[in-house]
Design a protein that fits this description.
- By secondary structure, this protein is an all-alpha fold.
- Helix content is 76%, strand content 3%.
- It contains twelve helices and four strands, in the order E-E-H-H-H-H-H-E-E-H-H-H-H-H-H-H.
- A two-stranded antiparallel ribbon has the order 1-2.
- A hairpin with a 2-residue loop joins strand 3 (159-160) and strand 4.
- Helix 4 runs antiparallel to helix 5 (149-156).
Length: 421
């Protein structure tokens, strides 16, 4: 039995009653259910039924307990044991990150990396399948439908008089004897590739999320237990604001840091392969587009650095404000007795004003960042196509759509990598 809000209360309710815990079906789910997330279906069905019948939503009592091994008491126990083992080592041999945090998430991290290899391959395969499909459509339309001879030759890029006539692509069609089932096969391959990409992405995301939750839970419990065992000297040198920020903000960053780690691994591989494919597709224009993208997203990285510096300044003011607020609440009787409310409120407001000033500075950089994120892809596309046409290339349907898809694949890692670094 545990304390939970009542069945009749929504998530925002603070009324607490005793109710049964809901075991997590993931613990007893079979292989197929775990592979395709079938264990979530009962929760989705409950939400759908309640929304349809009563226009309501999920209650806290509908949510599952944490899976076995993910509760804070279990995760923190392993972390504390590893921490104590590090404390027994000589100081120069202690490595808390490698010796405490990494062993806890080693399995999830390497599984996520393995899945991301297949995810990257799936993403880079899609433009090639699209190109093959567009070539098939061109050839099928002009060859199979027995259209006029000249467009047929143009579509298939047949040579006539020593010059290659080009309408759809610079590829040569050595045979117009194509079958309709080739197109259906390409459609099936594109669909399967998309589904497999979603499969690998979902499981990689889940592994990274599990690793992040373990790190966050472990660090949160360790900070809390450390605060209970601190000496008087330690308490005097550590204010409440710093402890609150460690629990509320820094521990949360470990969770999102898992996704940054994944991007740090997969982004360089994706960028290199995508640039090679672009060079094969549009030649030197791809290099011009890549350096344009590098310049734009490098500038984006500098903006993110500025925002990080501003965030540190803001957090310093937040620490001061939270510390002073806690001191005021602890000594409110004395403050009221001596009528010191106004001076303390003025000091708290001063810290808050300084905090808001940093938030306004950060908002200005955010506007520039979002504007660059929106406009950069259009600038890169324009540079690629202008340079390609200027160097004598012919923009065809196949080249345009294939290039657009490759640039879209290249955009995300180029945008995220500066933020991660």
């Amino acid at each position: 039995m545990g304390a939970h809000p009542s069945k009749s209360a929504g998530i925002s309710s603070s009324r607490v009653v005793d109710c049964e815990h809901v075991p997590n079906p993931y613990d007893k789910a079979g292989t197929v259910s775990r592979l395709f997330f079938g264990w979530v279906n009962p929760l989705i069905k409950t939400a759908y039924t309640r929304q349809r019948d009563t226009n309501g939503g999920l209650l806290e009592t509908d949510l599952y307990d944490m899976p076995k091994g993910f509760e804070a008491k279990d995760v923190s126990k392993d972390g504390i044991e590893l921490w104590n083992e590090q404390l027994k080592l000589p100081k120069e041999e202690q490595a808390y990150g490698k010796g405490v945090l990494y062993p806890m998430i080693r399995g999830q991290i390497w599984t996520a990396i393995f899945l991301n290899v297949f995810l990257t391959a799936s993403q880079l395969m899609q433009p090639m399948l699209l190109k093959t499909m567009l070539l098939f459509c061109a050839k099928f339309y002009f060859c199979q439908e027995r259209m006029v001879l000249e467009p047929m030759r143009q579509a298939c890029a047949l040579e006539e008089g020593g010059a290659a006539m080009n309408y759809f692509d610079n590829e040569r069609c050595r045979s117009c004897e194509i079958e309709e089932y080739d197109g259906w096969l390409l459609v099936v391959l594109m669909g399967c590739n998309t589904l497999m990409g979603g499969f690998f992405k979902s499981h990689a995301f889940m592994r990274l999320l599990n690793a992040g939750i373990k790190l966050k839970s472990t660090v949160t419990v360790m900070i809390y237990e450390k605060s209970l065992r601190m000496s008087a000297k330690g308490r005097a040198s550590t204010d409440h604001g710093t402890a609150v920020n460690l629990l509320a903000n820094d521990a949360e960053k470990l969770l999102f840091g898992m996704f940054a780690f994944q991007m740090l691994f997969s982004a360089p591989i994706t960028i290199i392969i995508a640039v090679v494919l672009l060079v094969l597709e549009i030649g030197g224009a791809a290099i011009a587009g890549f350096f344009t993208m590098l310049f734009l997203f490098g500038s984006l990285g500098k903006i993110m650095g500025k925002m990080g510096a501003i965030e540190q300044l803001k957090m310093a003011q937040t620490d001061k404000r939270v510390k002073l607020t806690n001191e005021v609440l602890a000594g409110v009787n004395i403050i009221k007795f001596y009528t010191w409310e106004d001076p303390f409120m003025a000091q708290i407001n001063a810290y808050r004003d300084a905090e808001l000033a940093q938030l306004r500075r950060k908002a200005k950089y955010q506007v520039g960042m979002y504007g660059m994120m929106t406009g950069a892809p259009l600038v890169v596309i324009l540079v690629c196509f202008v340079v390609y046409a200027w160097t004598g290339g012919v923009l065809t349907v196949v080249k345009v759509f294939t290039t657009l898809m490759l640039l879209d694949i290249l955009r995300q890692p180029m945008m995220m990598l500066p933020m991660v670094i």
